[in-house]
Amino acid sequence: MSSATERPTSGLDAPPDGVTLPELDTPRTQVLLAIADDGLISGHRASHWTGVAPSLEEDLAFSTIAQDGLNHADLWYQVVLEADAGDSPAGVDALGLGRRPEAYRHAVICERPPRDFAYTLARHWVFDRFEAVRLAALAGSSDPAVAALAVKLRHEQRYHLEHAELWFDRLVGGGDEAVTRFHDAFADVLPEALGLFEPVAGEDAAIADGLLPVGHRKLREQWLEGAAPRLAQAGFGDLVPADDAAAPEDASGGRDGRHTDDFVVDVWPEMTRLYREHPGARW
User: Fold this and answer.
1) Rounded mean pLDDT, 96-110
2) Which of helix, strand or coil describes residue 86?
């Protein structure tokens, strides 16, 4: 796993002229960057199915999911920037594309390559159930901008979850081969999914002031309350993580900026290439 110890803690390249960015190490920005980065990197990985999905319908579905992930990240970055960010689009680009890899706060599972469609669907189901729980909690935030955006995004996120649930039911009822492949996919996904629930830096302070009404540990409990019965009904009960289980070492640390080569060598260079090669460009 890559380490960021030799780089500045902010991990931020110099922003374009006219763009003022907030301090990135505060509890507020750390919480919001984790949310935004989850969406950005998940959306980027979902886009890898465009043109190669098993059917035209799913090609369109995952293209839409990818677009929504990037758009949701954009909206969360705008909340990070607040009102004094200068040129908002340039500020959003600086946050989304102008940081070094160690400054991203997404969970490691978000950066994993799509592998096959069974793995993609298992991760889709796990992540969108997590996102539903997180947005429900954020709707009660003491920060009006956070609460309002969470309420708005819950409506869009509902369709992603419906799509994931449709495929879950289809595969667990699809015969022995489908069930076996889906079971194997969840065996890979569920341990790594625990990285979604690692706390961010300053989380206790964010909870104390109401910005984050529910911490990641509590979110994990709520997520399991809904996910465990569904997994058990599907015959996947043996895969449900124990209460004290932790993510594998190579799938943990994302909230602290520790990422694998799946991000540092693959996603990040591809995602940020134009921004880095043509600073300040508009198109």
Assistant:
1) 96
2) strand
